[in-house]
Design a protein that fits this description.
By secondary structure, this protein is α/β, with parallel strands linked by helices. It has 3 domains: 3-79, Arc Repressor Mutant, subunit A (Orthogonal Bundle), CATH 1.10.10; 85-158 and 270-311, Periplasmic binding protein-like II (D-Maltodextrin-Binding Protein, domain 2); 163-261, D-Maltodextrin-Binding Protein, domain 2, CATH 3.40.190.290. It has 11 helices and 14 strands. The protein has helices at residues 3-16, 19-25, 30-44, 60-84, 100-107, 111-117, 169-175, 224-232, 246-250, 280-295, 298-303, and strands spanning 49-51, 56-58, 92-98, 121-127, 141-145, 153-161, 163-167, 189-192, 199-204, 210-215, 219-221, 237-241, 255-257, 266-273. A 5-stranded mixed β-sheet has the order 4-3-5-14-6. The radius of gyration is 24 Å and the shape is elongated. The termini are far apart.
Length: 318
């Protein structure tokens, strides 16, 4: 049995939800698809899926095979694309994940030029405020902030993220200006969150010790843009990327606070599997973003990434 064909059939069955649907999509006979799955289970000596009249469910072994098979098939497609491309020109489809705010402000605007330069290239941009599973979700390149997990992924550093605390002069005149992070307990803080409960903002004292302050307020929003607007309206104190409020600070609409307690900048990386390093489309995307971010707006690169930081309050994890 051709293992590549068998793996492709198995992946198709999982993604279509049934043997019959996979058979129609191939096209192939239902008997043929069923026989391939049975041979895979016999080869690996374990049940890969539980089939009922209404649905299909993967076993643990089936889930493992599905994730690895998708990765193997993607590498084969990459190899075929690279070999078939004349002079190594980028071609085929590239799946990229990015934090919502960063993707909207700093990635999406760069894609039209990239696609114009490489007519055979296609891009799927997934904007999500979570760390994606690159294998399970078939993501070729992911943008991440903060500490990187130990893995076989290649990381290319793009820039740094600096988080600051600020508020409007009107709010500070009415409520007073906090002098230390501990003073935030008595203030209305504008929290990035879509979950109930208090959030924690991290700071570093002048002596180098880092600590968290639990903050609370009457307004929580899962949009940094909306939080900044609320801060300018005098609703409370907000913690956001410095780049996002640069113009507001310069114009006097917001005032920077607790500068002696700011955390060091957090690194921002592009992540991709080592085996994709030689892919023309991967190189084209990585080089395109890196050249624009290091040249046109280096400080803006990481600043808009805050919405991807893990947890209910992304500002607390940078």
């Amino acid at each position: 049995m051709d293992q590549v064909t068998a793996m492709a059939t198995f992946v198709r069955v999982v993604e279509h939800g049934s043997l019959s649907a996979a058979a129609r999509a191939t096209p192939a006979s239902l008997t043929s698809v069923s026989r391939i799955i049975a041979r895979l289970e016999a080869r690996y000596g374990t049940q890969l899926m539980v089939r009922t009249t209404r649905r299909l469910a993967l076993t643990d072994a089936g889930r493992l095979l599905y994730e690895r098979a998708k990765s193997v098939l993607a590498e084969i497609r990459d190899l075929e694309t690279s070999l078939a491309s004349s002079h190594g020109q980028p071609s085929g489809r590239l799946r990229v994940s990015a934090p919502t705010l960063m993707g909207r402000l700093l990635v999406a605007p760069l894609l039209p030029e990239l696609l114009r330069l490489h007519p055979a290239l296609s891009i799927d941009l997934l904007l999500v405020d979570r760390a994606v599973d690159m294998i399970e979700e078939d993501i070729h390149i992911a943008l991440r902030i903060g500490r990187l997990p130990d893995s076989q992924l290649v990381a290319r550093r793009l820039g740094d993220l600096t988080m600051i605390v600020c508020a409007s002069p009107a709010y500070l005149q009415q409520r007073g200006t906090p002098q230390t992070p501990g003073d935030l307990v008595g203030h209305d803080c504008l929290v990035f969150s879509d979950a109930p409960g208090a959030a924690a903002w991290r700071f570093r004292a002048p002596d180098g010790e880092e600590h968290s302050i639990r903050v609370a307020g009457r307004l929580k929003i899962n949009s940094l843009d909306a939080l900044v607007a609320a801060a300018k309206a005098g609703t409370g104190i907000v913690r956001v990327p410095s780049w996002q409020v640069k113009d507001d600070l310069a114009g006097g609409q917001l005032q920077r606070l607790l500068t002696d307690y700011e955390l060091p900048a957090t690194a921002v990386h592009l992540l991709f599997p080592a085996q994709r390093l030689g892919s023309p489309r991967t190189r084209a995307f990585v080089d395109h973003l890196a050249s624009h971010w290091s040249g046109s707006h280096p400080s803006a690169v990481a600043a808009a990434l805050d919405s991807a930081i893990h947890g209910a309050d992304p500002c607390g994890s940078a």
